[in-house]
């Protein structure tokens, strides 16, 4: 275990089991379709990579980069599109994939932007949610786990850009993000 990690919150085995379960539900719900999975850079890349391999359909893949955080630990509420989609989503079944929903500001902005492009359907798959931090309501159809208001890293989630490569979802030692 990396020295900056206080504890493992969700071990890799549980994450993998959940991702398989979400993939199976998505496979069933989108039967006969060719869904477009939209990942939000950069945190979603790990869950996206595992999730798509658990969907037994001809999926397509695209990414958006949206900024809200900078390098701090709390949302500034400032949302900006840094990189837009390559694909036209009009008439497509779009599934947005996220690692975590915190305040919900990132996704509520993104969902508004995507909805305006008239997809055939638009849903959210988020591995984690922090309900205690939510500022805006979001309808999350595919959800992995609820997590407490702790600073979690790993499986795509970073602190100041690092720790995304941890296979488990971990809680950092306070001294790491307090310094
Ligand atoms: C994190 C996380 C979500 C967003 C959630 O991304 O991956 O995308 O914040 O926060 P919110 O619900 O309060 O908007 P971040 O902006 O840190 O970028 P990253 O994915 O590159 O780490
Ligand atoms: Mn993100
Ligand atoms: Mg981040």
TrEMBL record:
Pathway assignment: Purine metabolism; IMP biosynthesis via salvage pathway; IMP from hypoxanthine: step 1/1; Purine metabolism; GMP biosynthesis via salvage pathway; GMP from guanine: step 1/1
Cofactor(s) needed by this chain: Mg(2+)
InterPro entries per UniProt: HGPRT, Hxn_phspho_trans, PRTase-like, PRTase_dom
Keywords per UniProt: Cytoplasm, Glycosyltransferase, Magnesium, Metal-binding, Nucleotide-binding, Purine salvage, Transferase
Highest taxon of source: Bacteria
A Pfam family assignment: Pribosyltran
Main location: cytoplasm
UniProt domain Phosphoribosyltransferase: residue ranges: 15-159
Parts of the chain that traverse the membrane: none
Molecular function as annotated in GO: guanine phosphoribosyltransferase activity; hypoxanthine phosphoribosyltransferase activity; magnesium ion binding; nucleotide binding
Catalytic reaction(s) noted: GMP + diphosphate = guanine + 5-phospho-alpha-D-ribose 1-diphosphate; IMP + diphosphate = hypoxanthine + 5-phospho-alpha-D-ribose 1-diphosphate
Keyword Transferase applies: yes
Family indicated by similarity: Belongs to the purine/pyrimidine phosphoribosyltransferase family.
PANTHER family in the record: HYPOXANTHINE PHOSPHORIBOSYLTRANSFERASE, HYPOXANTHINE-GUANINE PHOSPHORIBOSYLTRANSFERASE
Official protein name in the record: Hypoxanthine phosphoribosyltransferase
Organism, as annotated: Rubrobacter tropicus
């Amino acid at each position: 275990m990396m020295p900056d990690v206080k504890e493992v919150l969700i071990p890799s085995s549980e994450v993998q089991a959940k991702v398989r379960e979400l993939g199976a539900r998505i496979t069933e719900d989108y039967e006969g379709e060719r869904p477009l999975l939209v990942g939000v850079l950069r945190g979603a890349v790990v869950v996206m990579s595992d999730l798509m391999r658990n969907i037994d359909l001809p999926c397509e893949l695209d990414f958006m980069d949206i900024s809200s955080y900078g390098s701090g630990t709390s949302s500034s509420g400032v949302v900006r599109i840094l990189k837009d989609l390559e694909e036209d989503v009009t008439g497509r079944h779009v599934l947005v994939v996220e690692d975590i929903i915190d305040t919900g500001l990132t996704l509520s902005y993104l969902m508004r932007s995507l909805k305006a492009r008239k997809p055939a359907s638009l849903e959210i798959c988020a591995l984690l949610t922090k309900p205690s931090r939510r500022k805006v309501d979001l309808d999350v159809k595919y959800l992995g786990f609820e997590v407490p208001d702790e600073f979690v890293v790993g499986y795509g989630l970073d602190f100041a850009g690092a720790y995304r490569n941890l296979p488990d979802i971990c809680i950092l030692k306070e001294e790491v993000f307090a310094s």
